[in-house]
Amino acid sequence: MSFAVAIGIDLGGTNLKVAAVDSTGRVLSSAQTATNPARGPEIVLAEMVDLSDRLLTQLNRTRAALIGVGVGAPGPLNQTAGTVVRAANLVGWNDVPIRDFLHKSLHVLVHLENDANAAAYGEFWVGDPKNRTDLVLLTLGTGVGAGIILGGQVLRGHFENAGELGHMIVNPEGPLCACGQRGCLEQYASGTSVTQRAQSELRGGAHSTLRQILHTQGTLNASDVSRCAQQSDPLSMRIWLETCMYLALACINIQHAFNPARIILGGGLSQAGEFLLHSVQNEFKNRFWKLGHDVPAIGLARLGYDAGAIGAAGLAWKNCTAGT
Ligand code: ADP
Ligand code: MG
Ligand code: ZN
């Protein structure tokens, strides 16, 4: 079976990533393109098929070498129907039959998974070797996604939406989230929220080196806030520490709910590296209960932007080859 490959697809609101992955998790070939969801699902799905075929051709393989396709897509998903029900960043995509389309086009088994769940499986499968255990991944990007791996399985839950930890409420009086709740983790720990809080403080007249940066660049992003916080700008430090505190609260709640050995921080915000990690670890240590010794190792993701596609391929290897 050394010739065999699985295709992993990571469907994002911004980027579409496709990778041909061997049974050990090695990426043999990959391609990325802008999703441009406004083109409509038919065109984007056709492109997935096209890119998959192109990767196989690059590898001198035919579809006969393909053991299955894994696809990570933004939720909520309907697993029974194999559809993307409605995704916040795929406007106009309603009940898109992604699994059947890929199955009919490529003639292989297709495993559909929530995108953050797929990324968590990727970190479990080929990330840090210490990750081959119960783990929770938080992806801190435009929003906050998460995936929970217990006993080597993705936790889906009865309604198949387990792991939407970005919508864990950490402050009942907090800002309104696009999901309709108030004070979701996403309102404090996404790159978007870090930037928005900084901008709103600046509008309120706060003194900060961020004001000059906003003036020069015309825009701010979370990396400006993390950089200025590291340079001891008081407003940036306050926002950064607040972000880390809410992340620590989330990690504590995660620990009590699932008791994983590892909690991993990924996504754009985790580019801040140790600066993020140390603050979250500190806040966690100070606030976690004093009754037990069930302290998880909180670490940084390893696979970066490839995690989703690799994990989706890993789920294809795991689920599409059963019984063969
Ligand atoms: P998505 O996958 O949702 O498109 P990403 O995971 O790429 O998002 O994350 C984008 C976010 O990460 C942006 O808000 C950006 O400002 C933030 N980001 C990127 N690099 C850094 C950094 N070094 N420090 C803090 N935030 C960062
Ligand atoms: Mg998830
Ligand atoms: Zn929410």
Structure description:
It is built from 10 helices and 13 strands. It has 324 residues and is α/β, with parallel strands linked by helices. The strands form 3 sheets. A 5-stranded mixed sheet has the order 3-2-1-4-8. It has a 5-stranded mixed sheet with strand order 11-10-9-12-13, with helices on both faces. Strand 10 and strand 11 form a beta hairpin. The termini are close together. Bound molecules: adenosine-5'-diphosphate (ADP), magnesium ion and zinc ion (ZN). Residues 14, 141-142, 191-192, 221-223, 226, 267-269, 271-272 line the site of adenosine-5'-diphosphate (ADP).
Low-confidence stretches: none
The kinds of small molecule bound in this structure are:
adenosine-5'-diphosphate, magnesium ion, zinc ion
Query: What general form does the structure show?
Result: globular
Oligomer: single chain
Instruction: Please state roughly what percent of the residues sit in beta strands, choosing from under 5%, 5-15%, 15-25%, 25-35%, 35-45% or over 45%.
Output: 15-25%
**Using only CA atoms, what is the Rg?**
20 Å
Looking across the biggest beta sheet, what order are the strands in?
3-2-1-4-8
How many helices? The count is: 10
**H-E string:** EEEHEEEEHEHEEEHHHHHEHEH
Measure the end-to-end span: 11 Å
Helix content: 25-40%
Structural class: alpha/beta
Main sheet? Answer: 5 strands, mixed
The tally of beta strands, per DSSP, is: 13
For the residues shown, what is the average pLDDT? 95
